[in-house]
Amino acid sequence: WLNPLFKIGYKRKLKQDDLYSVLAEDRSQHLGEELQGYWDQEVKRAEKDAREPSLTKAIIKCYWKSYIVWGIFTFLEVKTFTYSALLFRVCGSVLRRTCVERVQWLKEGTRVVQPIFLGKMISYVENSNSVTLHEAYGYAAGLSTCVLLWAVLHHLYFYHIQRVGMRLRVAVCHMIYR
Question: Transmembrane region positions (predicted)?
Answer without folding.
Answer: 67-88, 136-159
